[in-house]
Amino acid sequence: MHSHVDPAVFLQGISGFLCAFYVSLAVMNAIMAAKIWKSGQSQKLFEVFGVTFTNVHLWIVVTALFTMVAPIAWSGDPWAMKAISVPQGLRDQINQWMGPVVYNVGTLVVLAVMFQFRRFFVRPMVAWTMLNLALVTMGFSMTDQNFAAIVTKPDNVPIVGLVFLLGFFTWLATYKAVRNDERLKQGLGPLEAEDSDKVLVWPDLVYTELICMVALTALLLLWAIALQAPLEEPASAVKTPNPSKAPWYFLGLQEMLVYYDPWMAGVVLPSVILVGLMAIPYIDFNPKGNGYYTFDERKFSIITFLFGFLPLWVGMIVLGTFIRGPNWNMFGPYEYWDVHKLEVLNN
User: Fold this and answer.
1) How many domains, in total, are found in the chain?
2) Measured between alpha carbons, how far is residue 198 from residues 195, 204, 208, 212 in Å?
3) Fewer beta carbons under 10 A from the terminal one: N or C of the chain?
4) pLDDT tens, 302-319?
């Protein structure tokens, strides 16, 4: 369950974080605008009265908008914060729609649409726009106490980072695959073949690893200072936490226990999944696509892996982390975790 405080007190408490969040978004878009302008890769969007507007102007406007939103967030005023919050009606509708069928079918449809139109979604401008929309949605949702209680829980902060990092690396791999597919259609070699220069382990690789080690150590120190350790009360044999969740990497298995017999969900299906993944190279023995990113040449392997990894594994982790609440009921992202909520079960 989530503990609630007075809305005005809650907004004042989160105002500093939201202000820093929107300032970070403004800086991020300003850097993007400067990078595009400096590289000379600006693209014309439209023209009004002889004035040409490019994507550089677009990200400058977005930077200005985030800069104006930051003081509103800093004020913590309940009336002003309504302008940078998800409307209550929309929140209620999302909570009402949230369910296992909508969630699972929705993730599959999103994955299918994005890969069917991958050449559109991998465009840097489209991807950057989607990132901004995702971050804005998260910022607007943080003014809701129920959403903020889930997202800011120390156990769940890494899952939020996992979602964004996974989205980035999936986009990056697909972006490179689409570029290589276009080059192969033109009779050219993959981009990886052009970068065949050897790199010395010493000092090039060792220095890079040392810098990464120092940076990650600093990040972990800041993380340990900023976030409280997710420790709970001592375990008791007569009192079970509600909800009682497995570690995040086992939430997919715990989710399957809702629908299947424990033997099926805990032993048979995981074994089938592992054996199936190991069998992919023997089923799809296409020699193409080795050592470079491609989609057209290895469709079966890529679709099979992503289908099992994104919606059926990562999707279950997100579901178990943010949507499953007391009594393992499903709650909307803006819904109060009421331990007395009853779900109608149809057997």
Assistant:
1) 2
2) 9, 11, 15, 21
3) C
4) 998 898 889 888 998 999
